[in-house]
Design goal:
- The complex is a heterodimer of chains A (590) and B (113).
- By secondary structure, chain A is of the alpha+beta class.
- Chain A is 28% helix and 19% strand.
- Chain A folds into four domains: 125 residues, Sulfite Reductase Hemoprotein, domain 2 (Alpha-Beta Complex); 159 residues, 2-Layer Sandwich (Sulfite Reductase Hemoprotein, domain 1); 75 residues, Alpha-Beta Plaits (2-Layer Sandwich), CATH 3.30.70.3340; 157 residues, Sulfite Reductase Hemoprotein, domain 1 (2-Layer Sandwich), CATH 3.30.413.10.
- In chain A, helix 4 packs antiparallel against helix 9, helix 6 packs across helix 7 and helix 13 packs across helix 14.
- Chain B has 113 residues and is mainly β.
- Chain B is globular, with a radius of gyration of 14 Å.
- The chains are: A alpha+beta (590), B mainly beta (113).
Chain lengths: 590, 113
């Protein structure tokens, strides 16, 4: 029997949700009939609006999908202005202030505390500036990711940006693919470094060369079925198909139609295509694709470039895009580190100014929650690097500040077990001030995810932190499972979960002890990933004792039980939600 | 009065009559559960896998793990609260007290031993 969500989708889904959304916005939040709220909130996701967690009723997270992370000139300013005007909640965040923007691990943008009543004005401003929230969440084609410097990279095999843009144009708002069994994540990589992270996407286009009709053709090999969620991580598997950039829309249409038709609509936990791939295997998958969905003979896979992949491959060569790099046109791109991917709104607007002043105005978002200012000429570079804003968002940050990622966490998210972003900020600062950086390490990745949904992509980090609980002196406290040695590259590897249920205030001490032992025991020049890979589980468990240190954690209590973890009066009963369009509390229903 | 119940947002919470009532991330004490070898499982709820109604009880099978021994899995059916049949008002159970999972969701007779 189809799930309840499928029933709601059968009634109204896709583009048509917009009219209803605008009608509710016109009449106010409390015009949504109580017995229809769950159905509408599920549908609103398709238009990028996600109802915030318990205690924050009537407020929404809004996600803007920026394909390949590209913000064209002027768009960052629009994001900043929208955040400033519409994304202010009842209480400030102590680290980031009253309004801020989040850059996500899938090169999108998230704003919080959005009121339904503001949505029409918001959409008008976004769309007038070439931005949209369409299909940013929900069961559909999500934001298309890729190498964030596609088209501006000296390592380019094929320029993936026009391909990603074409797929974005073809599949956003396309009725034939608007109601999938579950989310559909696509990556297009054109560089020879593997920066598109195709391995962890549902559908991945990866650079390859194939001889067709006696000619070497540049294009993509196709992989299917990657993903990290639910303690069921999978790397995408080759389906032995090569496609040219021109054929990418056709192949995408075929594969996503296959998922639309064969994906599990009865059990949402089994719906992602990785599970269909588990069941069928790549040979059957290819056969069904060829027989039922593609009207030309699919070429077999070409020669890939995976043996050249350096991105997050563990050797420290190319862990991210932070720093100053040459573009093929003689200009430079400058990658700036954004701790946990969150920027206060004043900083967003200032960055927009700087991008216009020193570059073309274009800004790009990376899959490591960082930003890149492109098109900076050599003669402007020094002055740009001297800008005070770059002291906080550095192109040459401390290794622990550089590699620290975090998901949204209990601040807003229903699924998360723990507080994340503010804690990761505190971890990174404490590590910077207290932990010796192992020799030769320039970027060290610590990814903190509040639950098994894995939005911070913990399994592909040097140190993976996954939200948990434990008891300390008999009392429940927030905690983390700790995994080690994950990464991508030619031979990607998910982190091995080594130390379980470590109280949150003992995690920094654990990392300090672990890195001390790494430094003592490593062979000369050995990377952290290699060091972890060659040790047994028992050996790893013996290293790195969890320990309380001078680190202080203000979020040890059950932050999920609060209406907002940083409010002075944080009890659920103190929540002002739900509120009207002006943020005034609405009377409780009897 | 009909009780409407479903789990939403990837099993993050249970909605009862369109109100978010039961959330993941709580710790539950489970007794006589086959879930793990602990005398009492100290169970962290990480996701609601299935929900059911056995009037007046609202029940669920929950994915998670025992934080004492580390065993992961899905519980048998647990009562997560009760709906007043007249008013539809939901009262959640106290997760800090001790709970006993059952193997089925809809009972026609006495509880199965």
């Amino acid at each position: 029997m189809p799930s309840k969500v499928e029933g709601w989708k059968d009634e109204v889904y896709g583009n048509e949700i917009r009219d209803h959304l605008f009608e509710f916005a016109e009449q106010g939040w409390d015009s949504i009939p109580e017995d229809e709220q769950d159905a509408w909130f599920e549908r609103f996701k398709w238009w990028g609006l996600y109802h915030q967690r318990k205690g924050q009723e009537s407020y929404f997270m809004m996600r803007i999908g920026t394909p390949n992370g590209v913000l064209e000139p002027g768009q960052l300013r629009v994001v900043g202005e929208i955040a400033d005007e519409f994304a202010r909640g009842p209480v400030d965040n102590p680290e980031f202030g009253g309004a801020y923007a989040d850059w996500t691990t899938r090169q999108s943008i998230q704003l919080h505390w959005i009121k339904l009543e503001d949505v029409p004005d918001l959409f008008e401003k976004l769309e007038a500036n070439g931005l949209s929230t369409i299909q940013a969440c929900g069961d559909s084609w999500r934001n298309i990711v890729g190498c964030p410097v596609a088209g501006k990279d000296e390592h380019e095999h094929v320029d993936a940006w026009p391909v990603a843009r074409r797929l974005h144009e073809e599949f956003k708002g396309n009725e034939a693919y608007s109601n999938m069994p579950r989310k559909w994540k696509v990556s297009v990589t054109g560089c020879d470094e593997g920066c598109g992270q195709g391995d962890i996407n549902d559908l991945a286009f990866e650079p390859a060369v194939k001889e067709l009709d006696g000619e070497a053709v540049t294009g993509f090999n196709v992989r299917v079925g990657g993903g990290l969620s639910r303690k069921e991580p999978r790397f995408a598997r080759s389906i032995d198909v090569f496609c040219t950039p021109e054929d990418a829309p056709k192949v995408s249409a075929g594969i996503s139609a296959l998922f639309r038709d064969y994906g599990d609509r009865e059990d949402r936990f089994n719906a992602r295509i990785k599970f269909l791939m588990d069941e069928w295997g790549p040979e059957k998958f290819r056969q069904v694709l060829q027989d039922e969905y593609i009207d030309y003979e699919l070429p077999t896979a070409g020669e890939d470039l995976r043996d050249q992949y350096t991105y997050n491959a563990g050797d420290g060569e190319h862990g991210d895009h932070v720093g100053v790099y040459d573009q093929p046109d003689g200009k430079n791109y400058v990658g700036l580190s954004v701790l946990t991917g969150r920027m206060g709104v004043d900083d967003v607007l200032e960055l927009a100014d700087l991008a216009e002043e020193y570059g073309s105005g274009e800004v790009r978002l990376t899959q490591r929650q960082n930003v890149i200012v492109t098109d900076v000429p050599d003669d402007e570079l020094e002055a740009f690097l001297d800008e005070p804003l770059l002291a906080d968002y550095s192109p040459d940050p401390h290794p622990f500040m550089r590699g620290s990622l975090a998901c949204t966490g209990t601040e807003f998210c229903s699924l998360s077990i723990t507080e994340t972003k503010n804690r990761m900020v505190r971890y990174a600062r404490w590590m910077r001030d207290n932990v010796d950086v192992p020799e030769g390490v320039e970027d060290f990745h610590v990814h903190l995810s509040g639950c098994t949904a894995s939005c911070a992509q913990p399994q592909i980090a040097d140190i993976s932190l996954r939200g948990m609980k434990t008891r300390k002196d008999g009392e429940p406290v927030e905690a983390f499972d700790i995994g080690l040695g994950g990464g991508l590259g030619e031979n990607p590897h998910f982190a091995d979960w080594v130390e379980m249920r470590v109280a949150a205030d003992e995690v920094p001490g654990y990392i300090q002890n672990l890195l001390g032992e790494f430094e003592d025991r490593r062979e000369e020049g050995q990377s952290f990933r290699e060091f972890i890979a060659e040790r047994s589980e028992e050996e790893l468990q013996e290293m790195g004792e969890p320990e309380e240190t001078s680190y202080e954690d203000p979020y040890m209590h059950n932050t999920k039980m609060t209406w907002y973890p940083y409010a002075e009066e944080d009890d659920m009963a103190d929540s002002p939600a739900p509120t009207d369009a002006q943020g005034k509390s609405l009377p409780a229903d009897d | 009065m009909v009780t409407s119940i479903h789990q939403l947002d990837d099993g993050a919470w249970i909605s009862v009559n369109d109100v978010r009532e039961v959330n993941v991330s709580d710790l539950w004490w489970l007794a006589r559960a086959d879930f793990c070898d602990c005398e009492m499982s100290d169970f962290l709820a990480e996701g609601f896998v299935e929900v059911g109604v056995h009037p007046p009880n609202v029940t669920a099978r929950i994915a998670g793990q025992c934080i004492a021994c580390g065993e992961s899995g899905v519980t048998d059916w647990l009562v997560v609260g009760r709906v007043d049949p007249d008013t539809g008002t939901f009262r959640g159970v106290d997760t800090g007290s001790v709970h006993v999972p059952r193997r089925r969701s809809r009972l026609a007779g006495p509880p199965e031993e």
